[in-house]
Amino acid sequence: MRIGEIAALVGVTSRAIRHYHHIGLLPEPGRRTNGYRAYSVRHAVLLARIRRLTELGLGLDEVRDVVADDAGRELVEVLGELDADLARQEEEIGERRRRLALLMAGPVNGREPVSPALAELLGATPATDSPTATKDREHLALLDGAEGADEIFGALRPMAEDPSVLELYERLDALATASPDDPRIAPLAADLVAAVPAGVLDAIPSGLPSGLPAGSGFAEALLADYAPAQAEVVRRMMAGVAARLDGAGR
Asked: Is the pTM above the cut of 0.85?
């Protein structure tokens, strides 16, 4: 048989057969005097087996183990590993679908679906056109779904309902064009640290590092989202929260 004939017989493409030759999965057949490969029935049997195994979801390296003459693993062992892997994937997909169902059934923040806990927090926040308040909400949405996020959102509720917080946002907005050594930075950072409810510190998972260390990828990305003076306020606030965590034995 020529390559096109065996490909049609087994139900694969000629390109796939050439790839199997290239990676050593399917032995090269001998060639006729005209240079064409001459495939035998044994080649077709092996190729059909390769096709069935790949359809089951085995990778080509696993297929090689199965079809190896001597050193390969038993087929039942490889299939058992595949079954366990599929079971894990099913569990992960099921969990993602359960979370998706909650999001679809829950409230929406602008154009983004949010968890009920975040929606409740945002609903308790007074309306404001503060740019930094809007940015803060976006950062909270980024946290949504993370470990301990619902507890943190619940602990932030008193801060969200405190009208004086709007004044803190206004002070932060006023630094949009200020320099990083502006004298308003230090007192604002201190006031922001003091405004964080103790319950928020208690809700931060104990396995997390204290605060967001300077130099960490997320901390640097977060600071880059602000104007220079505002970023300095946020940096000092993160350091202050970390100090409060350390002082609480965290």
From this structure: no
